[in-house]
Design goal:
Layout: H1 11-18, H2 23-29, H3 34-43, H4 53-58, H5 77-83, H6 95-118, E1 121-138, E2 159-173, E3 181-189, H7 194-199, E4 213-218, E5 221-229, H8 230-241, E6 247-252, E7 259-268
Helix pairs in contact: 2-3
Length: about 280
């Protein structure tokens, strides 16, 4: 699929896609980020799977797909301004109650966050080769007239660039997957630089991230798809060129139905069996 194909999707087609496979896979098909795909769904009022949906589905649980709601056209600003005085002002909640409710929500999120990490499994791979996939060209979605749109970053540049670092090798651990072929694909993510992450820390207080990537059992090969911060890409690439990346360790879910979430990864020149 080409990057502009998502513009031709109907609401029904988009609804079927995001409920058929994870958002990261759908976004990769259209060569855009999962965050961009989520914004497109929001703009078209297409519901997306909630947190934990794919984990439940992988565990064999029945997770129903909701029907596509009717598109609701937003009222003009003038109508909203006229309707506002007619609405009754909301009651002011007690300040102490609001803070305690928020704290309880944060405690619950942290408990779920730590439970998931405590059940993680380590996967270690021996890296044998590497290469870079690169593409550069005109952005067929370019449209400067849509800069005020909620997905304007898709249209703001007439050029598009994709740069992926690919490491290949074989699984060493766990034993049941030993010597299975392994491939890890790293995609640059500009928003993961240290400055942006620190600015967005408040957004994670009530909803910590659930995973950073995913891996899939494709025949005789385990494929891993992970993001890499923009400012770390050059450093990792230099080490790959110098043949200093010889092992990769991923921490994630146990493979269920051939797939699982990834919570973290590390690259090493030497493998220490006593440490993940």
């Amino acid at each position: 699929m080409s990057p502009q194909d998502h513009l031709r999707l109907t609401r029904e087609e988009l609804h079927n896609l995001v409920w058929a496979k994870p958002m990261t896979e759908v976004a990769k098909d259209f060569q855009i980020s999962d965050r961009a795909m989520a914004k497109i769904c929001a703009r078209k009022q297409v519901p997306v799977p909630p947190r934990g949906h794919w984990a439940k589905k992988s565990a064999g649980k029945d997770v129903p797909k909701p029907s596509l709601p009717e598109f609701v056209t937003k009222a003009p600003k003038e109508q909203k301004a006229e309707a506002k005085p007619q609405q009754q002002p909301p009651k002011n909640p007690k300040v102490g109650g609001v803070f305690e409710e928020r704290n309880q929500k944060i405690r619950k999120s942290l408990k779920e966050f730590r439970n998931v990490l405590s059940e993680a499994v380590d996967y270690t791979a021996r890296i044998e080769s590497w290469n870079c996939d690169y593409s550069f060209g005109l952005n067929y979605s370019y449209n400067p007239l849509r800069r005020d749109n909620d997905v304007s970053f898709l249209y703001e540049s007439p050029l598009s660039e994709y740069r992926d670092l690919v490491l290949k090798g074989a699984i060493l651990e766990p034993r049941r997957l030993k010597e299975r072929k392994f491939e890890a694909r790293f995609t640059r993510r500009p928003h993961l630089n240290q400055k942006t992450v620190e600015e967005d820390l408040h957004r994670y207080e009530e909803a910590p991230p659930q995973f950073i990537g995913g891996f899939y059992n494709q025949g005789k090969c385990i494929m891993a798809y992970v993001p890499i911060p923009e400012d770390a890409f050059a450093l990792v690439l230099r080490n790959a060129m110098a043949n200093k990346i010889k092992f990769m360790t991923l921490r994630g879910e146990k493979l269920r139905y051939g797939q699982g979430h990834i919570y973290g990864y590390s690259l090493q020149e030497e493998h220490n069996e006593e440490q993940p």
